[in-house]
Amino acid sequence: MSRGKIGTRVARMTGTRRGRLAVAVAVTASLATLGIAPSALAASFQKQLAPFATCPVNTPGVTQCLVSKVTSGEFVIGNNTVPINKTILLKGGYNPSTHEIVPPTDGETLSKTPLVLPGGLLGIELLGNLTEVTVTAELAGPAHLFLANLGGAGPLVSLPLKTKLDNLLLGPACYIGSDSEPMTLSLTDGKTNPPPPNVSISGKSGEPVIEAEGRILGLDNNTLVDNAFAAPGANGCAGILAPVVDLSVDLKAGIPAAAGKNTAIMNGGLRQAEARIVKSEQEIPEFGHCVKVEGVAEGKVIKYNGKYSNANCVNEAVETLKPGKFEWSTGPGPNPKFTGTGEITILETVGKAKVKCSSSSSSGEYKTAKTETVTFTFSGCEDLHHSSCQSGSASSGEIQTSTLVGELGYIKDNEPLKPLVGLDLQPAPPAANVASFECGGVQETVTGSVIGSEPTFDKMSATSTLKFVASHGIQFPQSFEEEPQDTLSATLGTGPAEQTGLAGKALSTLEEPIEIKARAF
After folding, report:
1. Do 66 and 156 fall within a single domain?
2. For the whole model, what pTM was predicted?
3. pLDDT at site 7
4. What CATH number does the domain containing 471 carry?
5. Domain annotation covers residue 39
6. How far are the Cα atoms of 55, 259, 345, 381, 471 from residue 396, in angstroms, in the given order?
């Protein structure tokens, strides 16, 4: 499906968008997360997918990325009630075969968010008067998700926890529960069935959310509950005094507390995205090659093992519909160089100082999946006074740039039909200037960077056109989408440095075809 359109897509885990929404609902219902309503003016796809940056997309078996926030609720453990008044974040990948929530690349599946225990643990006389005590929930083992229980059929998520008690007098390792004896929550969006004295309570699934043209699915305003779990006793409190202090904490907190005496209520929402989409959006736009793969004969049928069904490597193959005849190769090939020509090019400041060149030539090389280097030579250059301009030892009328590094980015990422891709050019270190030259004996300098648009993308091509648009010293665009301003500055004539625009076009011929991949699907 083309980037920006909402339509039918095939998901490897669930088969349809409806199936993927079920995943989102299930995960949300099971973990109680994000409570953020979608904005009226959508951010770029990559901006919206930024919360999934640490999703373990390269871990075998992970098909989904999850970002979850618990924004309110409470824990009742023994004699104490801890209100959830700070955001607790849970994130990672989801493996449907094992039902496991796989840790993110930064290792922090559950944020270590300290919550204040109202009243502290006053009354433990062995330690004197403890003032503020914080309680921090930590995972004591892998969390698991069970999609078949969506809608109250049973526990949606198994969340093994240990809770850390913090206060100067309690020592650095005072916990309720441990890795070997966790407090295991079985959260549901349906009704609980606890032993007495607790009575049944209910969760709720919340409202479905679709964002980023269907790339992100989730739920808002959901509630996950469990009041049938047991709470173990304290351990590790106050170092060498642990046996005595652990007992004191147990007595004060009313733990160990049998099932039926504890409660967890978590309110929030969730966002979920397919791991393949998150991975692609993290990589694009990028240079590369869409290569046709060899078919393998299986009887009278030719089988193809490529990932993509089309020659631009955007649409992923579906075996029953279109075979995977193509595979994407990231980065430049063995012949990465190019040369180019251009016509009229104009450099103009906001103060109306101007240099105009009648033609240009360029040469460069693709370096990585994101970058290229290029050098421009502008010819027939003169200022407003018709004084000839030239760089150093160049011929009269010639301005030569330093070697420039161009980096791919999005000018517009969330267009309904297609994105707008650009190349941001700036001096390659150690060069400090884009160009230095003189006109009529006056030294002039251009610094900063400039973004040109790349209108050809998502197809292999042996030519490339880079367009620079400016008016009265103002560049269009002045930045990549949702990125800081990125423009040129120049001293033209005897005035001060001013914001400067570059207008022109460069047509390049490549040693071998290359593609700018700009759509994830």
Report:
1. yes
2. 0.80
3. 29
4. 2.40.160
5. yes
6. 56, 89, 17, 8, 27
Query: CA 481 to CA 229: how far, in whole Å?
Result: 48
- C-alpha span between 249 and 309 (Å, rounded): 63
CA 485, CA 226: separation in Å to the nearest integer?
Answer: 49
Q: How far apart are CA 481 and CA 518, in angstroms?
A: 14
- What are the CA-CA distances from residue 193 to residues 196, 201, 263 (Å)? 9, 8, 12
Distance from C-alpha of 230 to C-alpha of 161, rounded to nearest angstrom: 11
Do 107 and 45 have their domain in common? yes
Domain that holds residue 399: 337-517
Which amino acid is residue 403, in one-letter code? T
Residues 326 and 351 both lie in one domain: no
221 has which bridge partners? none
Cα atoms in the 13 Å half-sphere on the side-chain side of 224: 33
Q: Tell me whether residue 397 is in a domain.
A: yes
- What are the backbone dihedrals phi and psi of residue 275, each rounded to the nearest 5 degrees, phi first? -60, -35
What's the rounded Cα separation, in Å, for the pair 374 and 428? 10
Q: Which two tokens stand for residue 406?
A: 């161009």
Residues 296 and 423 in one domain: no
Kindly state whether residue 1 falls inside one of the protein's structural domains. Answer: no
497's tokens: 């440095």
The verdict on 244 and 187 lying in the same domain is: yes
pLDDT reported for residue 25: 40
Q: Is 87:300 a contact under the CB 8 Å cutoff? A: no
What six digits make up the tokens of 37? Answer: 């309503």
For residues 412 and 419, the answer to whether their CB atoms sit within 8 Å is: yes
For β-strands 337-342 and 326-330, DSSP reports them as: unpaired
> Could you check whether the bond before residue 195 is cis, i.e. omega within 30 degrees of 0?
no
Same domain (yes/no): 500, 435: yes
Domains in the chain: how many in total?
A: 3
Q: Measured between alpha carbons, how far is 427 from 448 in angstroms, rounded to an integer?
A: 8
* pLDDT-flagged residues of the chain (< 50): 1-41, 123-129
Whether residue 269 is found in the same domain as residue 394: no
Instruction: Output the pLDDT for position 37.
Output: 37
**Beta strand 174-176 with 157-166: parallel, antiparallel or unpaired?**
antiparallel
Residues 367 and 289 in one domain: no
Residue 3 counted as domain residue: no
Report the pLDDT value the prediction gives residue 244, as an integer from 0 to 100. 63
* Domain final residue pick, 236, 262, 277: 277
Which of residues 330, 353, 368 is at a domain's end? 330
229-248 CB burial, b ≥16 within 10 A, e <16: bbbbbbbbbbeeebeebbeb
Closest CA to 374 of 320, 431, 421: 431
Pick from 71, 55, 96, 416: nearest CA to 221 = 71
Tokens, residue 130 = 């403890």
